[in-house]
Design goal:
Elements: E1 10-14, H1 25-40, E2 45-50, E3 64-68, H2 76-94, E4 98-101, E5 114-117, H3 132-148, E6 151-154, H4 157-167, E7 174-176, H5 190-201, E8 206-210, H6 219-233, E9 238-242, H7 250-257, E10 265-267, H8 273-281, E11 285-288, H9 297-304, E12 309-312, H10 316-321, E13 326-328, H11 333-345, H12 347-363, H13 366-381
Parallel strand pairs: 1-2, 1-4, 2-3, 4-5, 5-6, 6-7, 8-9, 8-11, 9-10, 11-12, 12-13
Helix pairs in contact: 1-13, 6-11, 9-12
Amino acid sequence: MGCYLCAPMRIAVNTRFGWLERLEGYGYFTEQVFLRLAEQHSEHAFLFIFDRPVDPVLSWPSNVKICVVGPPARHPLLWRLWYNWRIPGVLSRFKADVFVSPDGIASLCTRVPQCLVVHDLAFLHDRDWFSASIRRYYRVHLPKFLKTVKTIATVSEKSRAELIDRYQIAPDRIDVVYSAAKSAFRILSEQERADIKLRFTEGKEYFLYTGAIHPRKNLIGLLKAFSLFKKRQQNGFKLVLAGRMAWQSGRFEALLSTYKYRNDVVLTGYVDLETLVGLTGSAYALVYPSFYEGFGVPVLESMQAGVPVITSSDTSMEEIAGSAALYADPKDPASIAEQMNRLYIDEALRRRQIEAGKPVAARFQWSATAERVWDCMLKAAHSN
């Protein structure tokens, strides 16, 4: 890529999910990647484009300019307005050489070369995971985005293969950039773990799930698995669910209200990063039984924190974690419960899984992600 670095570029980035008070997957990806790139490539000018005001106390590298352009793009109608009508004018005024969009949506009304990050194709897999309007938007528009943009990035080989198979995309147009765990996740001291358990579970050991309460995440299946585990072991274990109530969480809440082991289930709601680090590092194990993921960041976060992982077979998590995780069929609560039982009765297995997870987490670093995104972006900028 050396010749690409000769002339300074003007790089516009869709940052509408970044630097929010309640960050989730797209937001963390945006912050971790593009702040690094701006700091590492000070010879280039960056424009971070937001759809709502940003905290005025935030500081930015000197080569970063902030642009806030409304309206806040929160549903498909406003997505079309924001990307196709507001963004092209911003790119023109900035004289952008490339536009990078890390949330899977591109502009169909600009000639500026684009690099699009598509994290997954979840909208294709189950009608209960998204509203009808969102499913319809992606079904209609994603094929257009993929034809319009110069380069595409995604976060796993499994997602890349799915994109190629579904949309007949030339393989050399799609780069795998992976994600990583946030550096804050770490192995905690005995006292830190004791304090977290006292705060959340009355001092008891617990299985942990982190992420939104959403049908795709298979929390009803997890409740059924936990029930099987409790019936078999008759112990004081808790189940901690750390995440916000999201799309169609009503069915989950209704089931939980009559759940036999309701007193052993702890709902934290959305928690800040410091609290999430504590909950993760103090868990007996992470149980992440999602039906579908493009990557599965909580798996790496737990491994980095020295916590064993139970997750779903036949998903991208197998690609990421390899033999360092225990796998269960997400459609079979008994399969999930069996892996919970295995960890509980075999402490040697648990120790082996903890040790196996550490080098796996270490292989995925945000610095490497940023470098891969940079290469993909440069290919887009110099594609003509």
